[in-house]
Every structure is written in structure tokens, then in C-alpha cells.
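ugh ok fine here u go
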Amino acid sequence: MSNASSRFSFRLSGLAGLASLAVVSAALLPGVAVGANDPSPPSRAVDPGAIRVLLSADPETTMAATMSGTVQSLGVTLGQTIAKGRPLVQMDCAEPRARLGMADAELAGARETLTAKSALRKLDAVGDMELNLAKSAADRASAAVALARTQVAYCTVAAPFSGRVARVYVRPHESVNAGAPLLDLVSDGPLKLRLNVPSRMLRDLRIGSQFNVNVTETGKSYTAKVSAINARVDAVAQSIEIEGRLTAPASELLPGMSGVAQFQQTK
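structure:
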């Protein structure tokens, strides 16, 4: 029994010795390291001057319905280039036009009454109070006409600036409420670069400071200059928002593209 136990202990000792020898050999052999099969990739150095940047249109806006009603027609399609003042969406305008007709009729009647009261006042047939009431009624009718014309103008949604249609939210014959989004419009002018930089860079940043932008979508580098610096620092993130402009036109760039901005590091 003791001989069997001795042989078993010897085998365990031998296995432990082989394991220790393998570890030592792996440490001593060149090019072999413990954990060589670790799938995690080696960490890459990050350029401290690289900052994410977003390209945006200036200006850009979401056109909203100024009245509740039914979309009668759409005058544009997705991605279409449009000029300032061009009609984009036409709403059903039957009811506002009817109200305008009623207001015009009431104004005509109020003016007739005012003319008659004025003539009677000259004959001393009516008093000043009646004449003043007639004038007030005519003024109210005139204001009602102006209001009705404004509501008719709401039926047509026109482009406030030249640009391109980035998104369409509605379709013809669709009912919408006042304030509902109709379409997104982005300017076709020079793009604006938006980025947040560490607040410690403020000592070197100035309006006109130059930096490079590597745009991901095009794979190209562009030169830009700082055009605006926010008046407040984000105390939590210790960063500040700035804006920039490209120094040369680049027709291949579109709003929504992004990349990395690189500032020259000062010593």
C-alpha cells in the first residue's frame, strides 16, 4: 500500500515539474509569451489633437405647417434643388378663401354704413357717437380681412432660402395639424463645421485659427478656419463649442458628413 502511494506521489510531482518547466521555457524562449493567444488587439495611440467634427448646412430648417388642413400637393421631391420663394407645399385652401370672401363682404357693408353715417352727421341727423361706432365697425371689418388674407397665405408653404430638400414628411391628401413637420430644407451654400474642443485649447484658439479636417466619407483632407467660438465653456465636459468654415469650396461635401479635425499642437 505504501509503495502504491509513493508511486502516485512521484507521478504528481513529475507532472508539476513538467508544468513549471513549460512556463519557464515559454518565458525564456524568444518570440513566445504567455497569453499569446489573447484575442484582444493591441491598443493604438490616439492623436491628442484629433477632434470629431460634423458638417452641417447653414442655414437648415424643418418647414412646418402653419395651419391645420389637408395637403393638396407637393411641389418638390427628395434631394431636389429649389430656389428661394418657390412653393413647396400647397394646402387645401377652400375654407380660408371662403372666410376671406365673408370678411370682404362685411368690410364692404361696414364702409357703406360709415359713408351713410358721415353724410347724416353733416345734416346733424346723427350724433358723434353713432359716427364713431360706424368707424369702429369699419376698422374691425378691415382687420378681419387682413386676418383672412394671412390665413389664405398660410395655404402655400414657400422656400425661405435656396437649397435642397433633405427629407419629406407628408404626402398629398394627408391631413396635418398646425406645427406638423412637412419637409427638411438645407442650404446649398458653404457648409458649417461644428466641433467641441478641450477648453484648455482656448489659450491658442482665435477667430481665423487654421486647422485641417479629414472627412470620413470622402477620405480627403480639407483646410478650414475657426469662424465662431462659444461664449461659455461646458464645465462638466471641460470643452467648448466652436464653428469653422472651409477655406475653399468643395462640392463633393454634403451636410451630415463627419470626420476628424486636427489642430497644430503648440509647445
